[in-house]
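[scheduler] slot 2 assigned
[scheduler] job type: sequence-to-structure, two independent chains
[scheduler] chain ordering preserved from manifest
[runner] begin chain α
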Amino acid sequence: MSVFNGDRFLALAIESVLAQDFGDFEFLILDDGSTDGSTDIVRRYAQADSRIRPILRENRGLVASLNEMIEAARAPIIARMDADDICRPDRFGKQIGFLADNPDYGVVGSWSEDIGENGEKLVRSGADHPETHEDLIAAIEVGGQLICHPAAMYRREVVRSVGGYHAAFRHCEDLDLWLRLSSVTWLGNIPERLLRYRRYPGQVSSRHATEQQIGTAVAQAAWRERKAGRYDPTADLDRLPPIDELDALFGRPGISRQVREQVALGLLYSASAMRDEGFELLMTHLRDGGRRDGMWRTVARLVRFGEPARALRLAATLTTSSPA
């Protein structure tokens, strides 16, 4: 578990791990330079339970923290957990049992239950995560969801064999890892809701929606390169280049436009993205003659988001430009 200014939900998350019916584990909690009360909470629980190994240091970011804990871990199996979610008591036992019974699988997640910031149950929409490796590969092909990161359990050496998490894919480091692992091991999910996944406006996926969508699109483009037997130019990057430079990075035309379109169409329902650089990315996509599916509905959505000026700009662009 990596923690950065997560004191609001941290105690509940820690207690849900300590309450597992499979109790033979070490609990690595890395405080990534928090400035709120997180450090004190970690220290308090570490003093009360010897299974907790705290790592307290300056801020280096989530990817660096996860890779540091993978190297520090003494067990051959690692369970991921976030500081704002809640494990069901039988989560570890069921996942350990699955990996013991299925040696071909290097990663297993589970279905999850969505909860709000006060723990209230939220209505789920969309399909659950794929169960078998074959289902997961099919989901990759269509850009579907794969494994809920804080519900994942994986074999340490398998993850180390592909270089762990890659720094360039900040905010979607898990997707990039699953895509790389899919060619060296099997991945799947237990069809039970072993994690309560908290959704609220302040979480990372809400605050960094545009960057997350760009990283997702590039990770998928890199997966297609590897699948075609070509070199993956993202492997050694510390940071992804701007979208306009992706054709040069991949060494062929069309990647930049493909990524921009995927991101633009994927951000239409995100209030945070339509209030930040995601909107300008959408406008560039339209000026370049990109797909216009659902754009007039996006005009109305921008008004609901409290962005009337941007709604007018989008409407004017749709009125004065014609599709390619």
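[runner] end chain α
[runner] begin chain β
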Amino acid sequence: MKMQICNPVSRIKSAITRARHSHTSQSHVTPIDHSDLIDILSCTRRRWAVEYLAGQPPNEVVTISDLSEHVAARENNCTVTELSSKQRERVYVSLYQTHLLTMEELIDYNRDRGTITPTEAPERLWTAYRAFCETLDG
């Protein structure tokens, strides 16, 4: 017998696995393991990164600096202009060294250039995650 949690996780997975990469001429399925989805969503910084990337058009190049500023501002409950250089740097380093590597199934990450190109997967994941949260809220 499957646990109850499998149904929402399955819904989240099915919502994002058909990520169309429009930088190519073909659509294809990007399989993402359930445990990878849970791992991606388990960290607040990664959730905020997914939220930011979900708001970007697919194939719009985003710099790690822009992403880290957004995440740092959320983390420190302030605006980007109010961030200190230490706050920016701390988030930038963790995204660069850890979190973006964990999220590679959702994004096209060019570590050498410091750029991220979201696919449709972050938007689908964020939408499914928010819907799941709403079911928990009542």
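[runner] end chain β
[qc] chain β: The chain is about 55% helix and 5% strand.
[scheduler] slot 2 released
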